[in-house]
């Protein structure tokens, strides 16, 4: 199940009793995906990106090695804490407007309504106003010539460079915004654009 | 045998407060048993189903404080379905009917209803202290009853409960004459509170030591509250999402500076970093700091605060503090006794904020450290061996590597040797949670060296029944054993049935135990309640009845009891 090409089959979860042969053990293995499918109803209290949303997650698990499998009750963080750490997910109301905006070097968070902007130009203007100075919004339009880059976290939890995708797609998937110094942005782990760099 | 009159012995017993010691002295002789039972003030019942209210009252007719725990620990992680049990109602009813002068009730993982709270509030004239931890089933209406009817209430301490918030006026239900509050903790409530009522309550409570607010109490209100209660020792701050005007901040800073007794800070849900810095003046006196809900504050701001906290004994933090941050903790907090590092990202992936380096740094820098809970993405045997050498005084050691089965990330070996070093060095270890790739070998070490171990949590570990057997045979002081997703089966379960009489409980889920095995166990040990929790397969289990159940059991929970099968089990719980 893992990267590296190491022979980790030996170390995989083996639920068979000792003495059975390996293939039978593999068949008996209850993969994490199985666990997700049989997760009980009581897990509906978990936050939306938790184990209950099995359909989408199962596919993700098989495609993306980086995406972690989601097992019932794992990691062992109590449900009260889960609810409160997932608060961020639920309050940012994906696609419905308000997202948190943070800017490097500025000690407070702002919230802004994406829905009140019509396009990237509007957003650029709004960002400038939000933090009270010029030059942030420029990053959205003229990516390479600005001290700052505007990045956003999308529905999948990936950080993307702002301004690439069509506006409609952007406001639907943007969960939060961050204005980062260009010098800090390299090596941050932004998802590649897929187009020219 | 007794050269002293009973009153003298009783007076001596007054100095023995730990319930374990009192249990021991009650076993010395009949006379001591009798004296002890009439003088026991605080009763602790670790599993509410191990006994009954009637037996409690028969043995201890004069107690004042009762602590009850309900659901098993893994209920915290949603492994126990809703409705399983742990109802406090029968206990309160029985106590209310009796003549017990209950003053304190402490409940953990129990189901509490508004009806229970109302009954509680009306039945005990001298009731002083209600502490509810991880409970559910009640609303703010129940809190209103407590506020209204408990004339001498000192403590209302609600920790991490699931409360139905009717956004009502429960705070206003404290009568104007109520001036006795010492602890008020409603941090887990979701809704708005009546701020005026809150302020007036705080202002008329000169003994208030601990105040923990919920997320809806805004900054201006906090400043006013602190101005009313400069004697505060523990403060739980709410949440501050928006940028605050400088005037509010200044007022807050002024109020904080007057709180010279402040020793503990917590809360900070969705807090912006600047409000952290407002607390800098009190940092040098802080002994307890809980920033584990402050997901918005990045590592550097956390560090800037912690740098001033030289007297810190307890620190709960998120892994966003990073290894660098932990190094700062290690060099600053020389008095640190307990550290908990929680994961920011519950779904793995993303940046590995803390690694084995942070853990090693802490172990090297904090000589008084005895309790740790550490979530991380990677670990090595070498690091654990170093930690063990640096810190042989651990009482609680809980390491959670987020990815199940993850080996030593440098050598790709199992982490058996690392944990082995921990149990060998830490001779006073009472609680251990293991994780990562582990074979039966680690359990051999645990069985051999962890002689004081009382609670062990195992997940995704081990190869064969031998692993579990090493633990059951070796750890003489084991009380609570909880296992999930590990290949232990009937052979291990049935090897020494009498062992379970010395333990409070055993939990096994997604292991290899079968229905047949559990039935055999229940037959051999009638003093155990062997519960099978089966949410999905109700019908299937029935059919297999004749055929000696090689059917795997999804969840097994067994516990010793003196009162036999409980009568309040829901249909999905089978008690064999």
TrEMBL record, chain A:
Q: Which InterPro entries match?
A: AUX/IAA_dom (IPR033389), AUX_IAA (IPR003311), PB1-like (IPR053793)
Where does the protein end up?
Nucleus
Q: Does the keyword Nucleotidyltransferase apply?
A: no
Where does the PB1 domain start and stop, copy by copy? Answer: 96-184
**Family matches, as PROSITE patterns:** PB1 (PS51745)
Q: What is its main location?
A: nucleus
Q: Which UniProt keywords apply?
A: Auxin signaling pathway, Nucleus, Repressor, Transcription, Transcription regulation
In the record, biological process GO terms are: auxin-activated signaling pathway; regulation of DNA-templated transcription
Q: Pfam families per the record?
A: AUX_IAA
Gene Ontology terms, cellular component aspect? nucleus
Q: What does this protein's UniProt record list under function?
A: Aux/IAA proteins are short-lived transcriptional factors that function as repressors of early auxin response genes at low auxin concentrations.
Tell me the PANTHER family matching this sequence.
AUXIN-RESPONSIVE PROTEIN IAA17, AUXIN-RESPONSIVE PROTEIN IAA19
Assembly: Homodimers and heterodimers.
Homology family? Belongs to the Aux/IAA family.
Q: What is this protein called?
A: Auxin-responsive protein
Q: Which organism is it from?
A: Brassica carinata
Q: What is the phylogenetic placement of the source species in the record?
A: Eukaryota, Viridiplantae, Streptophyta, Embryophyta, Tracheophyta
From TrEMBL, chain B:
Nucleus as a keyword of this entry, yes or no, is yes
Q: Where in the cell is it found?
A: Nucleus
Its signal peptide is none
One GO term of the biological process aspect: pollen maturation
**Pathway note:** Protein modification; protein ubiquitination
Major location, coarse class? nucleus
Which keywords belong to this entry? Auxin signaling pathway, Developmental protein, Nucleus, Ubl conjugation pathway
Q: Name one GO molecular function term.
A: auxin binding
Q: Which CDD domains does the UniProt entry name for this protein?
A: F-box_AtTIR1-like (cd22159)
Question: According to the lineage, what is the superkingdom?
Answer: Eukaryota
Q: Coiled-coil regions in this chain?
A: none
Q: Among its keywords, does the record have Protein biosynthesis?
A: no
F-box domain segment(s): 4-45
Any one of the GO CC terms: SCF ubiquitin ligase complex
PANTHER family cross-referenced by the UniProt entry: F-BOX/TPR REPEAT PROTEIN POF3, PROTEIN AUXIN SIGNALING F-BOX 2
Name this polypeptide is given: F-box domain-containing protein
